[in-house]
Every structure is written in C-alpha cells, then in structure tokens.
Amino acid sequence: MDNDKHFNLIINIMIGLLVAAIIILLDHLAINIKSQPSDYNWQDSTESASAQKENAINDGMKKIEPGETTFLPILNFHHIGTAPQHADKISKSFYLEPKKFEALLKSLMDNGYHAVFASEAVSYLQTMQIPENKIMVITFDDGNEDFYTNAWPILQKYQVKSSMYIMTGVRGEDWLTEEQIKELDKFGLVEFGSHTVWHPKLTKATSEEIDSELANSKEFLEKLLNKQVNILAYPFGLYNEEIKNKTKSAGYISGLTFDQDAWQNPDDLFALTRISVYPELNVVKFLDELRNGK
After folding, report:
1. Which domains does the chain have, with CATH numbers?
2. How would DSSP label each residue in 129-190?
3. What is the pTM of this model?
4. Cα 32 from Cα 38, distance rounded (Å)
C-alpha cells in the first residue's frame, strides 16, 4: 500500500512537472489564448466582500526552525472557463471549468485549508512562524478577463482570498481592464502583483531588459492602485541568481516560480514554489501525498 501511495505521488509530480515544462516551452502562450466570458454577474450578489476571519487562521502559531522547510501550498491557475474548441490538448490544460473550480475550493475548505494572500504567506515565512491551521495561497497569472467573469463570483461567494499577477503591457478584450483591476482591489479579497510587462523569458533577456520589466510593471500597478506591489511571479517560472538579485533590488520581497511542490524554504523567498493546477489533478489528494511524503 505504501509503495502504491509513493508511486501515485511520483506520477502526480511527474505530470505536474511536465505541465510546468510545457509552460516554459510555449512562448507567450497565455497571450494568445482567448478567455471565455460568463453570463454570471457577480455585482448582483448581496454578499459583502469582507476579509476572511483571521481568528480561524491564526488560532495558534507554529515556529519554523532554522534550516527547516514548511508546508505551505501555493496553487496556480490561468483560466477559469471553457477552453476554446480549437485549442489543443496543451492549451486546454490551462483551463478549469467554473464548476470544477468551485468544487475544488469547497473540497479544500472541507479539508481544513484557509486561503491567505501571497503577501501574508511571505510575512509568515519572514517571521519564521506559521499558523497551526492549514493555509494555502491561490494565485492567478496573466490577468485574464475570465477571472472577473468566472473566478471572482465564486471567490466572492465563499469569501476566499486570491493573488493575481498581471502582465501590465498586455491589453485587449480578453484581459482585465484598469477599471476592473481597481474594482477588484477595492473589495479586499484580491491582491495584485507583478508578472512583468510583456511576459518575457527573463533568463533570455538582457540585463537592461530585466531591469525594465521588473521596474515598469511594479511602477504601473503601484500608480494604478495607489499601494505597494512587492511580489513578482516569474514568467514561465524562469529565474536564476541574477534575476533573483535584480528582483530584490527592484523592491520586491518575494518571487514565485513552479516546481509542483508545497514545501517552502523561508531562507529563499525569491524562489517560492507553486503547483500548477490542471483539470486532471486531484489537488487535495496531491497535497495530502506531498504533506505526508515529506
């Protein structure tokens, strides 16, 4: 039985890493995939967008010992919607149907997970203390318009926090508008961060291009929202030591990548790992396997 669990864990990790590798290989894929709008209008909801109850999350803190990693899942999504009919299998892996997304959120909450902002997770790691209760971070990359039409009504319904990473140079009908970004920010359940300006492979960019991408995207969002933006999601998850140092110098406090793992290293806040969620992944089971297999 233990061998079967170990084998299933290895298979899930391999599938996840394959998806992450495909993200890296498909240059600017996210820019070319179109969002699918929903007929649901979250503005008709009568529920307030108050913050989640902090008492439930912070009911007892656990110290992270020096040199230890800690279990803190950071889930990543791109599209919540129906994939275009013409999309290939790889492209479709970036889409999760709204009903499946809602079922996933309910399953995570039923299993005791509480969502926090990425900035809150970083703060826990900085202080080397983490809640005894299970916490997670829900992230979205790129700034697709279907976040507003499909994901946000569900997140609002359950009062679940999420963190969105915006490509500030990409605009069009399939992407969040400045007005939508400001509207979401005001409700207090969505935290915005940088995903650079044009979503380049930073490891292939020149030093000047890296500096421009990091600084200009940060400046744009801070001016738009009138607040500090200090977390970066590396495009394609690609980074190296130079990029980590430049990210820190640009005023960020953390950088997010991919590795299909949920164990975070407080000593390396510029390489926090995320789990790419694809339709076939049983997230709760995968997290249990990661947690118990460490």
Report:
1. 2-293 (3.20.20.370)
2. EEESS-EEEEEEEETBTHIIIIIHHHHHHTT--EEEEE-TT--STTB--HHHHHHHHHHTSE
3. 0.84
4. 19
